[in-house]
Amino acid sequence: MGRLMILGSASAVPDEHHENTHLMVSVGSHTVLVDCGSNPIQHLRRAGISFESLTEIVLTHFHPDHVSGLPLLLMGMWLMGRKAPLKIYGIDHTLERAETMMALFDWHGWPGFYPVTFIQIENKEMCPLIVDEDIRLYASSVKHLIPTIGLRMEFPRAGKTIAYTSDTEPCPSTVSLARGADILIHEATGASTGHSSPAQAAEIGNRAGAKTLYLIHYPPEKDAQELVQEAQKIFTGRVILAQDFMRIDF
Ligand SMILES: [Zn+2]
To answer: In order of start, what are the domains of the chain with their CATH numbers?
Structure first.
């Protein structure tokens, strides 16, 4: 039994009900945070998830709405007495900058800091990040304004697959990531370079044969019904507008 929690659903500018897009996946011995735009500690606490239990963080790209909360999260865990090691995954473009950001805070001088390992993943199709009996997590490059990865998460025990695009315009790799997925969580910022509209997300979902489409990373001021309707006109399965604290059990 595992779960995915939507911790934030907004695009770059959040509102009082929608944090910047970030997710948490908990399965077996893994508690994986995907992106860290704002300080995730409050939302993890509100969701009843102990933030000290995080085992891995995946950073999809180095834009402020996806990485700016990292120093606060790492510091918070340290102040709460964390000793357990933590792994942070990302491509070179992301991790080099994340390490530089932490270095600006002189974090190597913080006494008793727990071990953090930055794991640089290859910039290739379906690069495996975590592969065991509970989760098979793969990343592929998507098409955003800077180097960015999308994710495919297979849960072998449950026989379920969830794909998450991160920020991207329509591209072949999101179709591959979402191929036959039970759930595709696709960004819906709006049609522009490096981003997608709900209709474009729906087209990708159809091409991939995904069963359910969650729209995420949308401007929260937009009309929720219109966003869903735009995608639902095209998508053959069910469309759901992701909201903060939505929980998907699998
Ligand atoms: Zn973003």
So the answer is: 3-249 (3.60.15.10)
